[in-house]
Each structure stands twice: as C-alpha cells, then as structure tokens.
Amino acid sequence: MLTRPPFDPRRVDSPLHRRVNLNFLEYASYVISDRALPALADGLKPVQRRILWALQLSDDGRFTKVAKVVGDTMEFHPHGDASIHEALVVLASKRYLIEGQGNFGNLLTGDPPAAARYIECRLTDLAREVLF
Predict the structure, then answer these.
(1) Model pLDDT for residues 108-123, shown as the tens digit of each residue
(2) Residue 105 burial by CB count (10 A; 0-12/13-18/19+): exposed, middle or buried?
(3) Residues near 65 by Cβ (< 8 Å), separated by ≥ 6?
(4) H or E element, residue 101
(5) Which site among 2, 59, 70, 78 is 20 to 30 Å from 9 CA-CA?
(6) Where are the domains of the chain?
(7) H runs (alpha helix) in 32-114
(8) Torsion on CA atoms 89, 92, 97, 100, rounded to nearest 10
(9) Separation CA 121–CA 30 (nearest Å)
(10) Model confidence, pTM
C-alpha cells in the first residue's frame, strides 16, 4: 500500500505551488503597473482618464451631477462606483482638469466629500483645449 506524505505548507517545490506563485506575481504586477500607478505620458491613472473621457462625451459647458458622471464612467470602468467617485474627487481637488461645485472635502482638515448626488463638476477650459 502506497501512502502519501502529509501536507507540509513549508514545501514550496510542488507544481501547483509554483504555478500559483507565478500567476499571482503576474497579476499583481499587472494591477500595480496598469491600474495603480499614473502613466508617465500624462500623469493620470486609467480611471481618471476614463472619467475625463466620460465628461468630454457629455460636455456642454454646464455643471453636471457627479452621480451622472460616475454612471457614465461605469460604461468604461468596470470596478465600481466608489473608486470612480474617489478618483473624481481627487481630480476636482487639484482644479486643473475638473472644476467642482459643492463640498468636495478638505484634505487639510480631513473632511470627507459630500455624496455624489449633491456635488457637481465640469471640465475646465484647460482640459477642453489641451486634452480634447
């Protein structure tokens, strides 16, 4: 009768263990390089680029509810509305590409931004001329 040795979690030379390690490292490096780090070309993360594109598609010069912009961006960005809302608040706080109206929070005091249904935004003139 052939018996197998008991499972030892410290043994790292099994084929399954190597495959899981390799796949995890590939996925982690993809996430870090393609989603978490800003691109060198424009300094924007993919979610921020998608927000600007959604704003440009519906741009008429008027302020738009952030909830609508988040909904429009979800067409292009499949990672949930909370991440889109946070990225939009960060972009609006910098005031270069997105102009905000309402309570976008304060980094110095730690005040959080208002809910997306209460605040509005639009593209700045700089974003309209330079980006699009």
Answers:
(1) 898 999 999 999 999 9
(2) middle
(3) 116, 117, 119, 120
(4) strand 98-101
(5) 2
(6) 46-131
(7) 46-57, 66-73, 81-94
(8) 130
(9) 31
(10) 0.77
User: So what's the pLDDT on residue 3?
Assistant: 76
Where does 46-131 sit in CATH, by number?
A: 3.90.199.10
Tokens 């870090």 found at: 32
CA distance 126 to 42: 14
Residue 21 token pair: 């390690």
The helix or strand, by DSSP H or E, that contains position 18, with its residue range, turns out to be helix 15-31
- Work out whether the CA dihedral 19, 24, 29, 30 comes out positive or negative: positive
Distances (CA, A) of 25 to 16, 37, 77, 113: 14, 17, 23, 35
pLDDT digits (tens, 9 = 90+) for 8-52: 767 766 777 777 778 888 888 888 887 788 888 888 999 999 999
Reported as a single tens digit per residue, the pLDDT across 81-91 is 999 999 999 99
For 89, the token pair is 């608040």
Catalytic residue among 27, 30, 96, 118: 118
Determine whether 118 is an active site residue: yes
